[in-house]
Design brief:
Blueprint: E1 2-4, E2 10-17, E3 20-26, E4 32-37, E5 43-49, H1 52-67
Antiparallel strand pairs: 1-2, 2-3, 3-4, 4-5
Length: 78
Amino acid sequence: MRILRLDGSRKRRVYETEFGNWWIQEWPTGRCRAWWEGPKGEQEELGDFPTLEAAYEAIEADFGRRVQVEEDDLDPPF
C-alpha cells in the first residue's frame, strides 16, 4: 500500500503481519522515516534515515527481532 501525502512524501507499508505493520515515509529529498505499528495501536519509531535502503535495513532488523528469525532468512521487500 502506498499513500501520496500533501507534503510530497510517500508512505508505504513494508511488512504486514500478525505482529503489526512496518511503515516507511519517504520525502522527495530521499530522506526517510521508519516505524512499527502494533496490532493494539502501539507505535515505535525506528528512526530517520538518509536513504530508502537504510530505512529498509532498519525495518528488516526490527522485523527479525520481533518475529525471532535470522536476518539472513528474510527476503528483501523491495
